[in-house]
Design a protein that fits this description.
This protein is of the alpha+beta class and 693 residues long. It has 29 helices and 18 strands. A five-stranded antiparallel sheet has the order 1-2-3-4-5, sandwiched between helices. It has a five-stranded antiparallel sheet with strand order 9-10-11-15-14. The chain has a four-stranded antiparallel sheet with strand order 13-12-16-17, covered by helices on one side.
Length: 693
């Protein structure tokens, strides 16, 4: 082993250790201070006091009353983006879980930092206004669907779909978490229950009872006294002469939402009023209560058409709005006597009457005369409506970010999968491939697909930022879900990693890197035009190849010590300029990218060989590959040096061995190896055989 190769190996090993060490120190987007948040809230709303949840403030309306909440998404759901840092978004919710405003506070997504700028990102966030946390939302279009559903589609951002999916998940996760804590009854699945058309059934009261359409519940005075035993109100029984076995609550519960049931219990006048109410409020569930015990249904100060203080309704521990329907009671003769009223329960906020829910009556006592202390005991019963009268419409469940991305790009993914299968076949059967006379044409065709389809169309240019962000998130114990937001690039990463252990850097750097393909085309055109090529000596070539490791080490060092400059440092990769935004950037980024490209006109793929930090990371594959996949003969290197001389990457040592850390898999040496008219050992062998014969 030469002194140079020892230094080279130690340098790469040190770089790897440094790369691992920096992972847990990666930057995160910073929460903004209260003053900046206050300025971001739009009038007539204003920022109130901070709540007991970090990153959440009260929202005050124009009159100074609480009108919702202001959330910094990073404090609640810090999903890492492609830079490794979370996207911080201000989410303004009203008390019903509706989005008043969604606004970008800060972010470090590479495509929005300088490529596209933040304007399209901010326009994307404006689409949330007027929607709700319970609205089924997905990113993309409903092209190819039947339409007419309740799923809401938000337009993404071209070239940045994965980043906006991360932002969407962060917004929804933060909003729903706050709603669970602060907006009880809002953040729950919004099943829609609709009444079926009138089935025109005839029931008697007895048939309603026998079929379970009527519920009869009783609570005795003894049970009530037991609830108040040992309390301040033990001796404040308003019915001291009642026996323990006497009914305190004697309640009939009838769901009269179905017209057939309503007709069975209501007289003509009451039925007309009920039908009018059903037309005005089709989302109301109407419940007839008949109480024949000593409890009653309402207090003396009850006001009609309001919520009765003694009656509560809940489902899944969330309150259900219940109000007096203000109907004149007129019941049929066979209906039991008692104090009766009709309640209206609102189905619009997710109440599902065909699932179990709880009806509660409060038994109230008071102690003292002037300022009496109020005590209460709760008696609850489980109720549910008969399913034969209702249809439950479950809202479409939004696809997961990964599923949504796959559906929206299924065509691209199928084409990419077929293309990757072709490249794998070429690499696996490289010796057969080069024997075909059109192999060079196929190679340039594959590079054209890589540049046009994978790069410019599919936005599948890999970057050093992704492995660094992945390692950072893994070492910090954070989710790696951000990788799923761009399945197109993820599929290329999977292919590159598989190829990493089989062919080293050759698969990606030689066949799947769009910027590398662009350089190779420029180099080929330059040669056709007779552009003079610079001759780099072997010594200087080895020295210049160390530069990419220096660049990677510098990038890692900046990430470790000055993470706020990570995005600027990452611009050492011209990929974003040339591939992601197709040179639509500030002049200095374009100038740098053009310089890198034109360097390849005089030095074959100069950037890939000498500067690329991703290439430096991929070069580790030269150590980790499972097999020396390029065939060699004993005569290779001694005496034959033809492959070494022809290798434009200078990836063949004087000994004839392949330096897989620098091999780009162009297969030119394999072509020479298989061609009996080019390979010197084969030519010599054939001549000896000819003389011997």
């Amino acid at each position: 082993m030469t002194k140079f190769s020892i230094i080279h190996g130690l340098f790469r090993a040190t770089l790897t250790v440094l790369f691992l060490a920096m992972g847990v120190q990666w930057a995160a987007a910073d929460l903004v201070d209260e003053a900046e948040l206050r300025d971001a809230v739009i009038a007539p709303y204003s920022l109130g006091e901070p709540t007991d949840i970090d990153g959440v403030w009260e929202l005050l309306n124009g009159s100074g009353a609480r009108g919702g909440y202001v959330i910094q998404s990073e404090a609640i759901s810090p999903l890492p983006g492609f830079s490794g840092a979370a996207i911080n978004i201000m989410v303004v919710l009203d008390m019903d879980g509706g989005f008043i405003d969604v606004k970008l506070l800060n972010q470090s997504e590479p495509i929005f930092v300088s490529g596209l700028g933040e304007a399209p990102f901010r326009q994307f966030l404006e689409q949330y206004r007027g929607l709700s946390i319970n609205t089924p939302i997905t990113i993309g279009t409903n092209y190819g669907t039947s339409g007419g559903g309740s799923l809401v589609y938000l337009d993404g951002v071209t070239k940045a779909t994965a980043s906006v999916r991360i932002a969407h998940e962060s917004i929804m996760a933060a909003a729903r978490e706050v709603a669970r804590e602060k907006l009880k009854g809002i953040a729950r699945p919004q099943e829609k229950v609709v009444l079926k058309p009138d089935q025109d059934l005839d029931f008697t009261w007895q048939e309603l009872v026998e079929q379970g359409l009527v519920r009869h519940v009783v609570a005795t005075h003894g049970e009530v006294r037991a609830e108040f035993a040992g309390t301040t109100w033990q001796n404040d029984d308003p019915h001291p002469d009642a026996a323990d076995s006497d009914p305190f609550i004697d309640l009939w519960i009838v769901d009269v939402t179905a017209p057939s049931v309503a007709r069975a219990v209501m007289g003509n006048r009451m039925l007309r009023d009920w039908e009018r109410l059903a037309r005005i409020s089709p989302d109301d569930q109407t419940l007839l209560l008949i109480e024949a015990g000593d409890h009653g249904l309402v207090s003396e100060d009850f006001v009609r058409n309001t919520a009765p203080a003694w009656i509560e309704a809940t489902q899944d521990e969330f309150p259900v709005s219940a109000m007096d329907a203000d109907l004149l009671i007129d019941l049929n003769d066979d209906v039991p006597d008692g104090i009766a009223m009709v309640l209206r329960l609102d189905r619009r906020l997710g109440f599902n009457p065909v699932r179990d829910w709880q009806l509660t009556l409060l038994a109230v006592r008071q102690h003292g005369m002037l300022q009496p202390e109020m005590g209460q005991a709760r008696f609850s019963w489980t109720v549910r409506a008969d399913e034969r009268f209702f249809d439950v419409l479950t809202p479409p469940k939004p696809l997961s970010p990964f599923e949504s991305a796959v559906v929206n790009r299924r065509g691209d993914l199928l084409i990419l999968g077929a293309f990757l299968a072709l490249i794998f076949a070429i690499m696996a059967f490289n010796r057969r491939f080069v024997k075909r006379p059109e192999y060079r044409l196929v190679r340039y065709g594959a590079l054209a697909v890589t540049l046009g389809f994978v790069g410019w169309w599919g936005q599948g240019q890999l970057s050093i930022l992704t492995p660094i962000a992945t390692l950072s998130a893994a070492l910090a114990g954070k989710s790696l879900s951000f990788l799923l937001y761009d399945p197109f690039s993820l599929l290329i990463w999977i292919a590159a990693i598989v190829g990493f252990f089989i062919w080293g850097r050759a698969l990606f750097c030689g066949w799947l890197c769009p910027f590398g393909a662009m350089q190779e085309f420029i180099g080929a055109v330059a040669k056709r035009l007779g552009v003079r090529q610079l001759t780099i000596s072997g010594t200087w070539d080895r020295r210049l190849k160390l530069l990419k490791y220096v660049v990677l080490a510098g990038l890692v060092t900046i990430l470790f010590y000055r993470p706020e400059h990570v995005e600027t440092a990452a611009e050492v990769e011209p990929f974003k300029t040339a591939i992601s935004v197709f040179f639509q950037r500030e002049w200095y980024y374009v100038f740098y990218a053009v310089i890198c490209l034109f360097a390849s006109a005089v030095v074959f793929k100069a950037y890939c060989r000498y500067l690329c930090p991703l290439g430096a990371l991929m070069a580790i594959g030269g150590w980790l590959r499972l097999t020396p996949w390029i065939a060699r003969r004993a005569d290779c290197g001694s005496p034959c040096q033809l492959c070494k001389v022809k290798c434009e990457y200078k990836a063949i040592k004087p000994s004839g061995k392949i330096d897989y850390s620098e091999c780009f898999g162009c297969l030119d040496c394999v072509d020479i190896y298989e061609d009996r008219n080019k390979c010197v050992p084969l030519i010599v062998t054939d001549k000896k055989r000819a003389r011997a014969s």
